[in-house]
């Protein structure tokens, strides 16, 4: 059930006591932590100070709770499809270097991808003779059609960002996933700009692999992310990292033989980032309390409000699509006749925390961002342009 206005306002006040001197519109880069994540880390640190790992079994319960929250967030079938990884790039590398490639195989990505979802595939060209094909998202009737137009009988995998980091373009994954399944093409989704923003359903969208860092929209720390692997694709990925933690009988250290874990933990070769686990678990519990549908609605409303507040600026051009079904938490824009890097720095100097991306300035509010902060950012921008 969505929080009522009073409960929502109290939660925002308690969880996000941001410094009043800044206006934070940079969640697509690195997000502030909520109070409960900070409290979780402080409690974990104090416990280590006093008792070390005496209560390690309780820590493992927190790890399981995080896996369950991530399972629900992506609608995986079970936690057996969830691996905890260092970051999105690591998970993409598990896929890229786990598949059995043949010379001439093709990978289709878009022409708007963040380097994480481009470099890893390009690295396969010299090593395995894999060709990377770029779908030009804005040169077809729809972005999804652009991806389909780029396919050939040699396409082995499509890897696409669910929301593009620069333009803020939101992909429609359901129809794309259905068509890729029909053609027996693997579907990999970099969800770093949508997980924690948009309702996500890996089963509905026929996604084989999905990955995301926790430090953006999931409001967690850097150094911990999620890797979803469809159980039917688990054995299709050769392992590229090995260690004590990724084996079937993890606690039996005396065994002379070993085999990989029968689930996604086979991609976790060593000791977990327990500090990060405590923090991210707390942050995801907060998102679950609010409800991802309400989170998405609040973020969408904030992006729409920003667009309205900025729309009367002379020479402004929005790079992010105006269709609400095509945007998530990002609003990127340019101003005719102005240097965007210079204007970005001026905004930062005025404590409007944002990013220079996609050829323009990128604002990215979260669900808790207050209306007065949106108005303040708009006012500062207008004063700088005056």
TrEMBL record:
Family annotation (Pfam families): Aminotran_5
UniProt keyword annotations, A-Z: Lyase, Pyridoxal phosphate
Annotated GO MF terms: lyase activity
Matches recorded under SUPFAM superfamilies: PLP-dependent transferases (SSF53383)
Domain Aminotransferase class V: 24-358
Name recorded for this polypeptide: Selenocysteine lyase
Species, as recorded: Hahella chejuensis (strain KCTC 2396)
């Amino acid at each position: 059930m969505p929080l009522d206005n009073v409960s929502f306002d109290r939660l925002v006040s308690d969880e996000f006591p941001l410094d009043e001197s800044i206006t934070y519109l940079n969640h697509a880069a690195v997000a502030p932590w909520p109070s409960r994540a900070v409290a979780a880390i402080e409690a974990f640190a104090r416990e280590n100070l006093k008792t070390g790992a005496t209560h390690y079994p309780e820590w493992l319960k927190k790890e399981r709770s995080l896996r369950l929250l991530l399972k629900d967030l992506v609608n995986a079938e079970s936690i057996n499809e969830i691996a905890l990884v260092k970051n999105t790039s690591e998970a993409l590398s598990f896929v890229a270097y786990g598949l059995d490639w043949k010379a001439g195989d093709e990978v289709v990505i878009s022409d708007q991808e963040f380097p994480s979802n481009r470099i890893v595939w390009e690295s396969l060209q010299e090593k395995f003779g894999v060709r990377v094909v770029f779908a030009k998202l804005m040169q077809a009737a729809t972005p999804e059609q652009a991806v389909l137009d780029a396919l050939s009988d040699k396409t082995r995998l499509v890897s696409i960002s669910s929301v593009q980091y620069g333009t803020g373009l939101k992909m429609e994954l359901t129809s794309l996933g259905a068509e890729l399944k029909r053609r027996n093409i693997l579907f990999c989704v970099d969800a770093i700009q949508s997980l924690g923003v948009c309702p996500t359903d890996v089963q509905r969208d026929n996604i084989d692999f999905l990955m995301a860092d926790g430090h953006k929209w999931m409001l967690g720390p850097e150094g911990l992310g999620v890797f979803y692997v469809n159980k039917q694709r688990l054995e299709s990925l050769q392992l590229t990292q090995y260690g004590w933690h990724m084996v079937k009988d993890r606690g039996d250290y005396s065994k002379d033989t070993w085999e990989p874990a029968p689930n996604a933990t086979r991609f976790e070769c060593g000791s977990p980032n327990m500090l990060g686990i405590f923090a991210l678990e707390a942050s995801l519990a907060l998102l679950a309390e609010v409800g991802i549908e309400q989170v998405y609605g609040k973020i969408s409303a904030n992006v729409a409000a920003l667009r309205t507040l900025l729309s009367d600026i002379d020479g402004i051009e929005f790079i992010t699509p105006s269709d609400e079904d095509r945007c998530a938490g990002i609003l990127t824009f340019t101003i005719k006749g102005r240097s965007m890097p210079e204007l970005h720095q001026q905004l930062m100097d005025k404590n409007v925390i944002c990013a220079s991306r996609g050829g323009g300035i990128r604002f990215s509010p979260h669900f808790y961002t207050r209306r007065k902060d949106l108005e303040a950012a708009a006012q500062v921008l207008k004063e700088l342009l005056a």
